[in-house]
Amino acid sequence: GSGLNLLINNAGIAKINSLDMETLESMTEIYTTNTIGPLLLSQVRLSPKLVLAPGSPGSALSCSKAAIVNISSSAGSIQELYMWGPTHVVSYRCSKAALNMLSRCQSLGYREHGILCVALHPGWVQTDMGSAAGYQPPLTVDESVRGMLKVLSSLSEKDTGTFLDWEGKVVPW
């Protein structure tokens, strides 16, 4: 009855395709998981519970009150285009850029309800997906999680609508 304080949308799939090999089916599958899934989960199931959590409207935003954290990727940064050469992953990049915009829209739409919303890049992490192209990512899962937890604990009103990395640094849109 007291609501939900923190929703972390950690949807993420990718297909290693070159620009010329992307298909409607691939784009649709990746967008459905990486962008549409977090949207629907946030709006249909959990935002009513998140609205209950912050207590009095107008009080400062934070993860300890109510927050939506969308796990994004620096691959979704239009400015950076991280690792373009070896792996295009166009559908993944586009879906994460769209997730970043969704995070910004959520920050505006849910602000009046006291819900903080951010996009968070976990770093290039040693997971099945992170290692899929045959490279060795620099971050362990433990390092990434420790960093993200530290960032989450420090988020405040000034951070809503931003795109941050696991160290709390702003990622360019």
Describe, in plain words, how this protein is organized in 3D:
This is C-factor. It holds the Pfam family adh_short. One of its GO terms (molecular function) is oxidoreductase activity. It contains 3 helices and 4 strands; from the N terminus they run βαβαβαβ. By secondary structure, the protein is α/β, with parallel strands linked by helices. The chain has a single domain, classed as Rossmann fold. It has a 4-stranded parallel β-sheet with strand order 1-2-3-4, covered by helices on one side. Strand 3, helix 3 and strand 4 form a beta-alpha-beta unit. 37% of the residues are buried.
Using only CA atoms, what is the Rg? 16 Å
| Widest sheet: strand ordering | 1-2-3-4
- Helix percent reads 25-40%
Which stretches are low in confidence, meaning pLDDT under 50 for 5 or more residues running?
Answer: none
Order of helices and strands: EHEHEHE
Beta-strand fraction estimate: 5-15%
Q: Residue-averaged pLDDT, rounded?
A: 87
Instruction: Report how far the terminal alpha carbons are from each other.
Output: 37 Å
Query: Into how many domains do the coordinates divide?
Result: 1
Proper CATH architecture? 3-Layer(aba) Sandwich
- CATH class descriptor name: Alpha Beta
> Would you report the number of β strands?
4
Number of DSSP helices?
A: 3
Name the CATH superfamily classification: NAD(P)-binding Rossmann-like Domain
Structural class: alpha/beta
For the largest beta-sheet, the strand count, sense and barrel status come to: 4 strands, parallel
- CATH topology (level 3) name: Rossmann fold
Q: What's the shape?
A: globular
GO cellular component, one term: cytoplasm
GO molecular function: oxidoreductase activity
Pfam families: adh_short
Protein name: C-factor
